[in-house]
């Protein structure tokens, strides 16, 4: 009996204390835990650019933060979306309904991200998209419940295509992956090339995924275009570049422009096949002291240097946790607002800030793949040529179709 | 310039040549499947994974043991084929008396295990396997630049196809094999070791897949997922040719390569579905396949 009484008394005390906490701090950490879901392609085409390595980056952020926020432990759940919008959306629905997950991170294939952010909007959750490319995620598909972190198709086109046209590459042949992401990239590239005085002389939309590119490379050779632009990603890009080198595309005077190339792609292809390739990236591990220091820690964990997506997952998770701490709650709306209040300047993002459409804008970089002679090690792959300032890199808000933006 | 169906003659000829090269690949892979199905009645869903294992064995053999391409072309099919024989002896044989579906499920499961294990160690980005020096460069055919290696693939694949066809259809060993699958008890009564023959045949089919894998290694990035996308196409080729028909698999493989190649010029969006359209048509008109005997 005395035990019962004591418990009762204690519960009343706790309840009183917590209601006081609510009145002072406005809200609290739900379930006494900050629960983060990591959703990504863990086994397919996009595994190496985010995948298990992205989860490691997220775990590093949690560990560096101390493992808890204001005394509430941080818990990570993870799942493989297998690049399927259905699987992704159902996983997130289950996370929200049954496990009260507070934030979903990772998010790679654009189709999965668009489906998941709709679920988050319906359930008032919070998502941070790090791996996806489609700029539509913060344009026509924007929601108040997600943020897009690392890059998107707009700066890819704006960086690479513009630089290539300025160097005299004014006639283009586009190899486009025949799905939402490829179409978005194709549209962005076409407008950038034409705006800078260039011309698209032809193109092929190839099925996703394609293993044999020889026929398309032959068509590109026949087109007479100076530049063969690759509006595809992952294994398709790797395959296209390999085939182009077998068919002597560059020897016959044409040049390749990779529009979405990750560090792991260049690493897989080797410098012999990729040297001189221009690309736009949100981050590179060997940019400066800070990025090197973090990357070396990451390398010790995984045995590979991080891609921009993996670094972005650390950066976004850290920014989220700081916002939860500062707000004293994991309530999505409050945290989202808090995240947008603070500028982002860490080893990953320079001059970073979150706009009302959910786009995290930050400096982007035009890079060129090193020659085998220039490279001093397995992961010494890029020269950073120039910085594209945050304000110029992304689609201006004045062109936005996002309903959250007052135009 | 001469035009064919609105496409310059040179482009048309180029695509025809490339289609033939890809077709030789399809022929080689579907041949292995046809041998295994035709003689053993096993629907080998691990064929794509075995092809991938061939490419990986070539890559790792070069990286860690210094085995060059030419040696790999001989050794890898033997090693992977031997591995296939172990699979047959210890796994497939146990379910040989059950419905074909069990074999399909078992081989599919094994394929997933092989792929998953390699993904765990090597990721999915793929690795490069250098083209052997004498096959580097290309041939100027007038209408196109054909990389020498692709020309070699065409020759090697066709030679292997002919060799296999000859072995099975024209030799005594092949005759035993065909008879053994027709009536194994009678053959055993004649003193032929039929179980051993079956193990060897499965090993041979797997060896063909591994041979194709070594041929593919310098062409495509060597990655654990390289076989899974190809497998479906190759199955369609086997169905079109007629399940189990050796000659059917070879001719259909070449034909489908050409049809796919031309689709890539006229309507590229459909290039990975065109083979399935042909499959539907063939199944409607000739349910046993173009070269199949039983209806």
TrEMBL record, chain A:
Keywords annotated in UniProt: Signal
Lineage: superkingdom: Bacteria
UniProt-listed CDD domains: PBP1_SBP-like
Transmembrane segments: none
Ranges of residues in domain Leucine-binding protein: 33-370
Family classification: Belongs to the leucine-binding protein family.
Record's signal peptide: 1-27
Official protein name in the record: ABC transporter substrate-binding protein
SUPFAM superfamilies referenced in this protein's UniProt entry, alphabetically: Periplasmic binding protein-like I
TrEMBL record, chain B:
UniProt lineage: Bacteria, Pseudomonadati, Pseudomonadota, Gammaproteobacteria, Oceanospirillales
Stated family: Belongs to the binding-protein-dependent transport system permease family. LivHM subfamily.
Topology term for the membrane: Multi-pass membrane protein
Compartments, as annotated in UniProt: Cell inner membrane
Pfam families, per the entry: BPD_transp_2 (PF02653)
Organism in which the protein naturally occurs: Vreelandella lutescens
Protein's recorded name: Branched-chain amino acid ABC transporter permease
Predominant cellular place of this UniProt entry's protein: membrane
Transmembrane segments: 20-40, 47-65, 71-92, 104-129, 149-168, 189-217, 229-254, 266-285
Source organism, top-level taxon: Bacteria
InterPro entries found in the cross-reference section: ABC_transp_permease (IPR001851), BCAA_transport_permease (IPR052157)
This protein's UniProt keywords: Amino-acid transport, Cell membrane, Membrane, Transmembrane, Transmembrane helix, Transport
CDD domains: TM_PBP1_LivH_like
């Amino acid at each position: 009996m005395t035990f019962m009484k004591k418990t009762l008394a204690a519960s009343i005390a706790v309840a009183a204390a917590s209601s006081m906490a609510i009145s002072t701090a406005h809200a609290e950490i739900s379930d006494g835990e900050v629960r983060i879901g990591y959703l990504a392609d863990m086994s397919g085409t996009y595994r190496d650019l985010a995948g298990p390595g992205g989860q490691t980056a997220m775990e590093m952020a949690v560990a560096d933060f101390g493992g808890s926020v204001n005394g509430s432990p941080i818990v990570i759940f993870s799942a493989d979306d297998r690049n399927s919008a259905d699987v992704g959306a159902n996983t997130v629905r289950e996370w929200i309904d049954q496990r009260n997950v507070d934030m979903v991170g990772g998010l790679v294939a654009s189709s999965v991200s668009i489906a998941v952010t709709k679920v988050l909007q319906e359930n008032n959750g919070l998502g941070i998209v790090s791996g996806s490319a489609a700029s539509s995620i913060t344009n026509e598909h924007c929601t108040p419940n997600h943020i897009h972190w690392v890059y998107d198709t707009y700066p890819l086109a704006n960086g690479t295509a513009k630089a290539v046209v300025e160097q005299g590459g004014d006639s283009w042949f586009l190899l486009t992956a025949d799905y939402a992401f490829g179409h978005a990239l194709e549209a962005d590239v076409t407008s950038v090339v034409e705006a800078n005085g260039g011309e698209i002389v032809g193109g092929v939309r190839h099925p996703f995924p394609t293993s044999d590119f020889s026929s398309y490379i032959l068509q590109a050779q026949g087109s007479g275009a100076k530049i063969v632009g690759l509006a595809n990603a992952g294994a398709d890009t790797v395959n296209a570049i390999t085939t182009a080198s077998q068919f002597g595309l560059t020897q016959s005077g044409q040049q390749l422009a990779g529009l979405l190339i990750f560090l792991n792609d260049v690493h897989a292809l080797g410098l012999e096949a990729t040297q001189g390739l221009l690309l736009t990236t949100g981050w590179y591990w060997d940019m400066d002291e800070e990025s090197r220091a973090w990357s070396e820690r990451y390398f010790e964990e995984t045995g590979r240097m991080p891609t921009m997506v993996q670094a972005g997952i650390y950066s976004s998770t850290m920014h989220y946790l700081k916002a939860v701490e500062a707000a004293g709650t994991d309530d999505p709306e409050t945290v989202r607002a808090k995240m947008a209040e603070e500028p982002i300047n860490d080893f990953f993002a320079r001059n970073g800030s979150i706009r009302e459409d959910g786009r995290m804008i930050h400096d982007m970089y035009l890079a060129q793949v090193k020659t085998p002679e220039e490279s001093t090690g397995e992961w010494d792959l890029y020269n950073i040529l120039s910085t594209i300032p945050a304000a110029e890199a992304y689609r201006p808000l004045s062109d936005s179709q996002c309903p959250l933006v007052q135009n | 310039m001469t035009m064919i169906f609105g496409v310059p003659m040179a482009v048309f000829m180029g695509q025809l040549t490339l289609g033939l090269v890809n077709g030789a690949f399809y022929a080689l892979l579907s041949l292995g499947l046809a041998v295994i199905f035709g003689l053993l009645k096993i629907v080998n869903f691990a064929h794509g994974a075995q092809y991938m294992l061939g490419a990986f064995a070539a890559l790792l053999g070069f990286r860690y043991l210094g085995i060059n391409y030419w040696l790999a072309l001989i050794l890898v099919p033997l090693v992977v084929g031997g591995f296939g024989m172990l699979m047959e002896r210890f796994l497939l044989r146990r379910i040989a008396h059950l419905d074909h579906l069990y074999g399909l499920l078992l081989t599919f499961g094994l394929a997933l295990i092989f792929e998953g294990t390699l993904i765990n160690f090597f990721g999915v980005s793929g690795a490069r396997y250098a083209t052997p020096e004498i096959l580097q460069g290309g041939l100027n055919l007038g209408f196109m630049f054909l990389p020498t290696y692709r020309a070699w693939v065409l020759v090697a694949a066709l030679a292997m196809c002919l060799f296999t066809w000859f072995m099975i259809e024209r030799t005594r060993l092949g005759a035993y094999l065909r008879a053994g699958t027709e009536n194994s008890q009678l053959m055993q009564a004649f003193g032929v070791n039929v179980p051993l023959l079956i193990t060897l045949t499965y090993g041979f089919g797997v060896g063909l897949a591994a041979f194709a894998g070594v041929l593919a290694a310098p062409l495509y990035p060597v990655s654990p997922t390289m076989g899974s996308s190809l497998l479906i196409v190759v199955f369609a080729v086997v169905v079109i040719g007629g399940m189990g028909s050796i000659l059917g698999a070879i001719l259909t493989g070449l034909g489908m390569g050409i049809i796919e190649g031309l689709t890539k010029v006229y309507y590229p969006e459909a290039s990975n579905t065109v083979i399935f359209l042909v499959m539907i048509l063939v199944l409607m008109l000739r349910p046993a396949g173009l070269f199949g005997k039983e209806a």
